[in-house]
């Protein structure tokens, strides 16, 4: 009998992508994102948008090719330059839980979309939506699975402190969702804090890729190493040079072969893949296939493939008619709005 990998809580089999039709690097995020770059001189906004669209479509096609379910939402709003990165405002969790996050840059806050949440509630089993976006007026932020790299198996939230990762909100999230907070400082060789944890770390089922050398506190560095390895994961240590090539901005997903068997894949950019050594590739491929897509235009914004993907860690809702459904509980002291609509509410899904 052919070997079928077991189900992993770490690797979702469905993802959400935003097809941003007017993509451009966001000037409001450039100050604290050392990975962000300007558009090549002389390249028009139309050319940038066209190139980015082709890259987004290529990622969606590559994920579908390996059997991952891909939900794509179009975005024509020219005032949302970073909407291609939905993982900063949304995360989903086993047991029917969804989190909505407070965003650091004011021009990113209307990336939160009611239609995305409605899709989740209609197609998946969603019991509770916890919306932290009402904390924005207080100047505290936690940008989702950009700010946190979550170990869904051991229930640990690895978080590099930054303007975009407030530790008080992290602890509140961990209390609400049942994670252990593991916060640390991470800086580059110039002493600049890493803006998002997911550019320096990726946690898979059997392998973790991380730039431990960018954690200056030696004691904390070893604590992070030990915590990652406690389940038997192999740790692939990345250099700062590889991090600048987005090697840490990857995500493990669960797909299907044409025969319907489970397959685990590590999605990353072609640039990230090229930066890996043969030995590192061999370790990763012991547990999952590497799916690499070239996205140089989108990477100008300081994020790569992981940032583009909001994983769906929810059970699918059967489509059989007459199945009873449960109301969705919304936990939000200060409801946010998107395009004039209440972002989360208590409803009876259809």
From TrEMBL:
<protein>
    <recommendedName>
        <fullName>Amidinotransferase</fullName>
    </recommendedName>
</protein>
<dbReference type="InterPro" id="IPR014541">
    <property type="entry name" value="Amdntrnsf_FN0238"/>
</dbReference>
<dbReference type="Pfam" id="PF19420">
    <property type="entry name" value="DDAH_eukar"/>
</dbReference>
């Amino acid at each position: 009998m052919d070997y079928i990998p077991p189900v992993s809580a770490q690797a979702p089999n469905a993802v959400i992508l935003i097809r941003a039709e007017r993509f451009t690097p966001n000037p409001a995020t450039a100050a604290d994102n050392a990975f962000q770059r300007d558009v090549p001189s002389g390249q028009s906004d139309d050319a940038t948008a066209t190139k980015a669209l082709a890259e987004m479509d290529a990622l969606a096609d590559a994920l579908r090719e390996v059997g991952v379910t891909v939900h794509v939402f179009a975005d024509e709003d020219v005032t949302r330059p970073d909407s291609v990165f939905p993982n900063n405002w949304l995360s989903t969790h086993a047991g029917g839980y969804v989190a909505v996050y407070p965003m650091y840059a004011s021009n990113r806050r209307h990336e939160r979309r009611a239609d995305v949440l409605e899709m989740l509630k209609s197609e998946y089993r969603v019991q509770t939506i916890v919306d932290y976006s009402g904390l924005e007026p207080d100047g505290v932020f936690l940008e989702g699975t950009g700010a946190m790299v979550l170990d869904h198996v051991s229930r640990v939230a690895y978080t590099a402190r930054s303007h975009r990762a407030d530790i008080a909100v992290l602890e509140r999230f961990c209390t609400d969702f049942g994670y252990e907070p593991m916060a640390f400082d991470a800086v580059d060789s110039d002493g600049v804090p890493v803006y998002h944890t997911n550019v320096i770390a990726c946690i898979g089922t059997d392998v973790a890729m991380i730039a431990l050398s960018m954690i200056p506190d030696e004691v904390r560095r070893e604590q992070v190493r030990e915590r990652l390895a406690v389940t038997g994961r192999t740790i692939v240590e990345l250099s700062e040079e590889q991090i600048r090539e987005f090697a840490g901005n990857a995500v493990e997903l669960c797909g299907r072969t044409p025969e319907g068997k489970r397959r685990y894949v590590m999605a990353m950019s072609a640039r990230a893949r090229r930066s890996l050594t043969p030995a590192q590739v061999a370790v990763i491929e012991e547990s999952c296939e590497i799916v690499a897509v070239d996205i140089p235009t989108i990477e100008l914004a300081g994020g790569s493939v992981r940032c583009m993907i909001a994983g769906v860690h929810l059970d699918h809702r059967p489509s059989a008619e007459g199945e009873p459904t449960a109301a969705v509980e919304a936990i939000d002291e200060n409801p946010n709005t998107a395009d004039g609509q209440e972002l989360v509410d208590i409803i009876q899904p259809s």
